[in-house]
Amino acid sequence: MTTTNHDQVLDRREIAAALLRALERRHEVLDAIVESNDRSEAVATIAALLDTNEQCAEAVLNLPFRRLTKAERKKIRAELEDLDAVLTWTPAERPYATGAHFRMRPINDSTTDTELFKERCADQLGEADDDRIASERDAAAERIDDESAMWLVAEDLSGDEPKPVGFAFGELTGHEVEVRIWVRPALRKQGYGTATLKQARTELAAYFPGSTLIIRTPA
Q1: Which of 135, 105, 90, 112 is nearest to 184 (CA)?
Q2: pTM metric for this prediction
Q3: Quick count: other Cβ atoms within 10 Å of Cβ 50?
Q4: Which of 21, 43, 138, 158 is the residue whose CA sits 20 to 30 A from 95?
Q5: What is the chain's pLDDT, residue by residue, as a tens digit (219 residues)?
Q6: Cα separations in angstroms, 213 against 104, 122, 205
Q7: Cα–Cα distance measured from residue 185 to residue 5, given in angstroms and rounded to the nearest whole number
Q8: How far is CA 52 from CA 115, 195, 208, in A?
Q9: How many CB atoms lie within 10 A of CB 210?
Q10: What are phi and psi of 104, to 5 degrees?
Q11: Virtual CA dihedral for 83, 47, 106, 111, nearest 10 degrees?
Q12: DSSP string, the chain
């Protein structure tokens, strides 16, 4: 699986930020953990409390007591500052990059997905011919049925209704899965591309176990 250094640093940065927020709100976090019925509920509750994703919530839940001291909090804050210094952009500039309130789901035949795919074709191909779109969708459906492809829709769940953001396309060739993403032009430079790519890696790795994911840079 390939990834960019920026993505790796961003992941580390978000975990460090979540740990620091958790330590600052340690009484609330501890109450949330104690009141949870099981681990999965605790992770979900922490994620909601700290407005973060489940990966960061897991890191908070796994935080050992020895890291609750003032000295350890100072180390985490210093790490956060170091990570911010090497990022080409931060979550404050692209707030949706963390993947909070975000999901990926398989494409379907709904009007929403059809219109989103038309927008993608118009953006990348300069046209949205209905026959060509239908042909490409039919061919994709056959590959998905054959388990040699998976197309995912990215959605922002922060509003009252899911907002379609873009696509992640996974195409299997041999033991490699080529991963491509597309984000709606009006939503670019806000972190949606990073969130889409991060979650697509997880989702597609589950769809194609044992395969290597090859990330293609969006055109």
Answers
A1: 112
A2: 0.61
A3: 23
A4: 43
A5: 344 466 677 788 889 989 999 999 999 999 999 999 999 999 999 998 998 888 899 999 999 988 888 898 899 989 888 877 766 656 665 667 666 678 999 999 899 999 999 999 888 877 667 888 888 889 999 999 999 999 999 999 988 899 999 999 999 988 899 999 999 999 988 888 888 888 888 899 999 988 888 877 554
A6: 17, 27, 7
A7: 24
A8: 30, 12, 27
A9: 6
A10: -120, 140
A11: -100
A12: ----HHHHHHHHHHHHHHHHHHHHTHHHHHHHHHH-SSHHHHHHHHHHHHT--HHHHHHHHT--GGGGSHHHHHHHHHHHHHHHHH-SS-TTTSGGGG-TTEEEEE--SSHHHHHHHHHHHHHHHS---HHHHHHHHHHHHHHHHTTSEEEEEEEE-SSSS-EEEEEEEEEEETTEEEEEEEE-GGGTTTTHHHHHHHHHHHHHHHHSTTPEEEEPPP-
Kindly report the number of other CB atoms within 10 A of residue 174's CB atom: 7
Instruction: Return the structure tokens found at 151.
Output: 């197309």
Residue type, 19: L
Tokens, residue 155: 């959605």
Altogether, the residues listed in the chain come to a count of 219
